[in-house]
Amino acid sequence: MVSSFHYISHTIPTKSPRITNQCPIFSLKTPNLSFSKSSFCTLRLNQVFTFPNHSLKSKFRSKASMADVNSKNVNIFESEEQVAIELANYTAILSNKFIKERGAFTVVVSGGSLIKSLRKLVEPPYVDSIDWSRWHMFWVDERVVPKDHPESNYKLAYDGFLSKVPIPPGNVYAINDSLTAEGAADDYETALKQLVKTNILATSPTSNFPKFDVMLLGMGPDGHVASLFPGHPLVNENERWVTFIKDSPKPPPERITFTFPVINSSANIALVVCGSGKAAVVKTALSGNQSSDLLPVQMVSPEGDLNWFLDKEAAGML
Fold first, then answer.
1. What's the pLDDT tens digit per position in 115-139?
2. Residue 39 domain-assigned?
């Protein structure tokens, strides 16, 4: 089956951002760059590009021990606004890195509040310093609704992000919303396999599943990630790349979702969590206690680096 999902038309700004081969806003730093302890952040990139004079500015102190926090790459910030700023910096760093290394950047996003947290990417200095033409944007999950439906993650991303940056329409991989949930999942997986054949999408030498450059994930108050919910059989799916759910405990009931083998083959994952309503789940996820009934968020364990981005409310019980 030939996939057609990714031929999505959206408005491209008539004035494209300034793109240069040697973008002056980035500077090459040494490997294994560690930021200040006040931010509780360690980014372990082989080659790290940072914005000059940029620092992580959180003054919040977690109640968790430094050893516990740093071992899990947990970044805690004063506010959701600061989370959004640092997430933009993190994403821009990785975009520049992978575009320089292999000429493309494959980024996966979830919906909901995560899209709101990407808003700083469409502002200076980031918007003018990213080669958007090399971006390939995917959804870790999507509701099986028309693209103009209020519940559509594509619509949410388009209104808040895509309409403001010149990512080529053919590089935006939305689902085929004319298909059933099962058909849309098959279609998405087929298209991913085609992108592997054309070397746009890398594969993990360990798992042979697709290896995205970065996944930007949110987390639900029940600990779900993507459309993988606590206690649902899909959390144990280990063969499919993309699968479907018709009984989602969170409406709408029909969705498609990446599976954990794909999520965990990622080169980088950012887990972005804000708000006091998720503090208890954050505490559970970062406690280190392993039980037989893991929350989906506790099953996120990428081959590459996992970085948590928390505001102080979400980290309030650490």
1. 999 999 999 999 999 999 999 999 9
2. no
Q: What is the pLDDT of residues 250-272, one digit of tens each?
A: 999 999 999 999 999 999 999 99
Residue 137: in which H helix or E strand, if any?
Answer: strand 135-139
d(CA 5, CA 82): 35
In a domain, 9, yes or no: no
Whether residue 89 lies inside any domain: the answer is: yes
250 close to 220: Cβ distance less than 8 angstroms: yes
Which CATH number goes with the domain that contains 200? 3.40.50.1360
Q: How far apart, in whole angstroms, are the C-alpha atoms of residue 288 and residue 293?
A: 13
Rounded CA-CA distance 125/129 in Å is 6
**3-class SS letters over 9-47:** CCCCCCCCCCCCCCCCCCEECCCCCECCHHHCCECCCCC
- Relative to beta strand 202-203, strand 141-143 is unpaired
In 153-311, DSSP assigns E strands to 172-173, 202-203, 210-211, 214-217, 242-245, 255-258, 268-273, 305-311
Q: Are 232 and 250 in contact (CB under 8 A)?
A: no
Q: H-helix or E-strand containing 76?
A: strand 74-77
Domain that holds residue 277: 58-311
Q: pTM, whole model, 2 decimals?
A: 0.81
| Structural domain total, the chain | 1
